[in-house]
Amino acid sequence: MGEIKSTLELAMERTKKFVISEKEKEEMKQKEVLQKATGLFHRYREGHLSSNEILKEIGRMEKNTRPAVKKQLLSRWIDALSLDDEDERILKGVESLEERSIAEIKQEFHHLLSQYQREREKVKEKMRVQLIEALRKDGIHGSAVDPKLEGSKLWKKENENLDRSYLIKLDEIKEQLRRL
After folding, report:
1. Cβ neighbours for 163, distance < 8 A, ≥ 6 positions apart
2. How far apart are CA 37 and CA 74, in angstroms?
3. How many other CB atoms sit within 10 Å of the CB of residue 35?
4. What are the structural domain ranges in the chain?
5. Among candidates 47, 101, 48, 40, which has minimal Cα distance to 69?
6. In which band, very low, low, confident or very high, does the pLDDT at 107 lie, cut at 50, 70 and 90?
């Protein structure tokens, strides 16, 4: 009598003829590594994992996957460094994964960040004074006048110029981290 096959058995028989090439296997593996690194990146950045927990998670991965995940994670962290945040957590993560001190680079980053913030405040105050003066010329003045800088074309232009010069310096720091 004929044998009754399950849906799974039928599906398995049909897929036997499909063979995954080495290139496809490698692409799947790279995608998996990227997904793992992205997951760790977000969990660490949001404070759900400590750097020690990250190292433990990587340690539990397949031996040949670990270096690729570390490399991807480091790359994501370095790319995420910005002038908008203190990013101390990211720098600690980089230091942890590299298993060495990056004190000089951290100090350079903090110096750049504080310099940027001071310069930005100076530009902001200068723009504020200019906007108040422009409003005064239009007959709008008084203690309640507080111009909105963010909507000003002049502020946007000055801010872009400031960002451009400091982003070049930030990119140099990122490059130092990549060369570790």
Report:
1. 83
2. 9
3. 12
4. 1-80, 102-180
5. 40
6. very high
What's the maximum distance between 2 C-alpha atoms anywhere in the chain?
A: 100
| pTM more than 0.85 | no
Report yes or no: 72 and 34 within 8 Å, Cβ to Cβ: yes
Q: 126-179, pLDDT tens digit by residue?
A: 988 888 888 889 888 888 888 888 878 888 899 899 999 999 999 999 999 999
The H-or-E segment that residue 105 falls in is helix 103-137
Q: CA 169, 170, 174 angle in degrees (round to 5)?
A: 120
Tell me the C-alpha distance between 10 and 173, whole Å.
Answer: 57
Provide the token pair at 91. Answer: 């720098």
Is the four-CA dihedral 134, 135, 136, 141 of positive or negative sign? negative
